[in-house]
Amino acid sequence: MARDKVMNWKMKHYAARVQGVEGLIEGEHSDYGNLTSRQCGNFVKIALARANELV
After folding, report:
1. pTM above 0.85, yes or no
2. How many domains does the chain have?
3. Is residue 27 part of a domain?
4. Packing angle between helix 9-19 and helix 37-54, nearest 10 degrees?
5. I need a surface site. Which of 2, 5, 6, 12 has the fewest CB within 10 A?
């Protein structure tokens, strides 16, 4: 059975936009190698905050 994606590309771009780093990533198959570990870690924090808003 295939695993569902945890974060789709739209959510990743939303999190990048919130952090002001959306210019460092582009396209659906983005390269996140330009981001710091902290910026990537903040994606989870932003995604959880967004999920709590939708509940």
Report:
1. no
2. 1
3. no
4. 110
5. 2
